[in-house]
Design a protein that fits this description.
GO biological process, one term: endocytosis
CATH architecture of the domain at 8-89: Sandwich
Shape: globular
Membrane topology: Single-pass membrane protein
Disulfide bonds: 93-105, 100-118, 135-147, 142-160, 154-169, 175-187, 182-200, 194-209
CATH superfamily of the domain at 8-89: Immunoglobulins
CATH topology of the domain at 8-89: Immunoglobulin-like
Pfam families: Ldl_recept_a
Family: Belongs to the LDLR family.
Oligomer: single chain
Number of helices: 0
Number of strands: 13
Strand content: 25-35%
């Protein structure tokens, strides 16, 4: 396989936008733009994606934030080395703080905490915060904007491109013999697992159950 090319770095300010054009160079070959974990940009609501021609895909992302620092976008074409672009977000704020839209610096942990800390209120609005009602019931909203199945949260594998499905997870609990640990942390009897009723707070006792057919 072709050797990967070193990433091309793009230096950008918070709240700036970025446009990436990816061409295959072959009339009937469609290129793709993906992130490091294989997610295509079409799967992420933050990206505006267009395909003017078969051999060209254009991805536009507005309102970049410090959370996007280090994001790598791969322009991939079959049988060719991927061209990687790495986004470097340069902020004048200290490393533990993020920039409000008006330039004020506020602790990164204060963004999306339900309380306005930026003078302009931008710490509680998009692009930092996304509305949970964009997902269907049974789905988990990633901080990066996409919706994934709720049973993929805290499964030890990064499914959200920003890894937010694996943050704030309950440490695995050691249960007694004859018990199992719910993903939400409590121990229940094995007899209630896959009994058709939700016994764990998060319903994880009914995940991955197979219906028996007679």
């Amino acid at each position: 396989p072709p050797k990967p090319l070193p990433p091309e770095r793009q230096y950008l300010r918070p709240y700036s936008s970025f446009r990436l054009e990816c061409r295959s160079g072959q009339p009937n070959v469609a290129p793709t733009i993906t992130l490091e974990n294989g997610t295509t940009v079409e799967q992420l609501p933050r990206f505006q994606v267009s395909r003017p021609t078969v051999d060209l895909v254009v991805a536009f992302i507005p309102d970049l934030t410090e959370r996007d620092n280090g994001m790598r976008l791969s322009c991939s074409v079959p049988m060719a080395a991927a061209r990687v672009t790495e986004l470097i977000i340069q902020s004048s704020c200290p490393s533990s703080e993020w920039m409000c839209r008006d330039g004020q610096c506020v602790g990164s942990h204060r963004f999306c905490d339900g309380r306005v800390d930026c003078r302009d209120g931008s710490d509680e609005r998009e692009p930092h915060c996304v509305s949970a009602d964009r997902c269907r019931p049974g789905q988990f909203l990633c901080r990066s904007g996409e919706c994934i199945s709720a049973d993929r949260r805290c499964n030890g594998r990064q499914d959200c491109y920003d890894g937010s499905d694996e943050t704030d997870c309950v440490t695995p609990v050691r249960c007694l013999p004859g018990q199992f640990a719910c993903a939400s942390g409590e121990c229940l009897s094995l007899s209630v697992q896959c009994n058709g009723q939700q016994d764990c707070r998060d319903g994880s006792d009914e995940h991955g159950c197979r219906k028996l057919q007679y």
